[in-house]
Amino acid sequence: MIIWTKIKLPLIILTVGIAAITLITLSKPTPKPNDDLLTEPPKVKVAVQVATREQVVLSATSQGTVEAKREIDLVAQVSGLIVKVDTQFSDGDFFTQDTILIEIDSRDYRAALLNAKSRLAQAQRSLAEEKGRSRQARREWQDLGNKDANELFLRTPQLIEAQSVVAYAQADVEISQLNIERTKIQVPFDGRINETYVNVGQFVTRGTALAKVYDTDIAEVRLPLSDRQLALLDLPMLGTALDSNPAVILSAIIGGKAHQWQGIITRTEASVDVNSRMYYAIVEVVKPFEVSDHTNHSAPLIPGLFVTAKIEGKKLDNVVVLPIEVIVKRTNIYTVNDKNVIEIQPVTVLSKNSERVWIQTKVNENMTILLEKHAVVSPGTVIEPIFSSDFNDNTKIETQVAATINDGE
């Protein structure tokens, strides 16, 4: 009886609580579905463009340093005292092919020439005497009635020796004359003096460097090209002759002013640089120091000048021109299939600048390409495409202008 009294009140409270919870649960209204909430969320509107292929001419841009095609060291071939230098024998001066730049004292060599001529005369006299003795010996042998004459009796070895002495003396005369000519130092082309090492009054020996000069007829620029750039140009395999010479426009800033020069690619090097993996093309500029309407040079093209080269490219078919923003992960674009679902498509980037990209891809002719919101959407997303006709009109104009691709891109 005492236990029942203790648990009676908790049981009553528990029973009342269960009844209250059951009543609240039964009286709760049943939720009704909201038709507005069951509709699909609106699709993202994205600007797109239908892929159109064009024929374009792309150019490659590279940079290099101007060098003379021929640069040589003038070296003394004879020893002696420098007795005269031309007024043009100074650093930076130009000279012509027939200019005697340096004269070395030739008196010793003229004396040597007289000595050589004297020895030649003596040898010629000895040869004439030996010929007479040989003829006399032959007549004497014939008088004996024997047709088989002894070579020693006929003095044939002595005659051959005398002829050899004459030939040696003649060569000595020619060497002496050549040494006299070598005292007057000329260059076999029109050029410019880069640096002088000697001056009048200085004694030089054979092999002494006198000056460094270069040819002013042709200048060269060695241009590095990446594999992508090489694909844009009409160049043959390395080391072979060019069927056509792509035109090149060189440009540089001199004295705060922009200048240009016209050249052509004449050859490519026969190997790939093992460090940079770059190909090299050689550009030649004719008459680089001649500023005239005939050469189309606005300033002298000086060796050592760093220039930018724009190389004429070849015609490329089936090229798609798009805004630079369409490229995803360097070599991909987003396309839209017939169900408006985004797909990723790999492409080959031919060229690009700050606004446009030129690509080749395997997409169909009517494939739709995403132009924007690449960070918002992803492959597999369903979108609402908005076709951009304004961009198509601008693209037709852009493709008529050559694009450029920078070195190393």
Q: Can you give me a brief rundown of this structure?
A:
With 409 residues, the chain is of the alpha+beta class. The protein is built from five helices and 23 strands.
Keyword list:
409 residues; alpha+beta; conserved putative lor/sdh protein from methanococcus maripaludis s2 fold; Elongation Factor Tu (Ef-tu), domain 3; 6-stranded antiparallel β-barrel; 5-stranded mixed sheet; 23 strands; rod-shaped; disordered C terminus
Helical content band: 25-40%
Form type = rod-shaped
Q: What is the level-2 CATH architecture name of the largest domain? A: Beta Barrel
Estimated radius of gyration: 46 Å
By secondary-structure content and strand pairing, the structural class works out as alpha+beta
The whole-number mean of residue pLDDT values reads 81
Query: How far is the N terminus from the C terminus?
Result: 98 Å
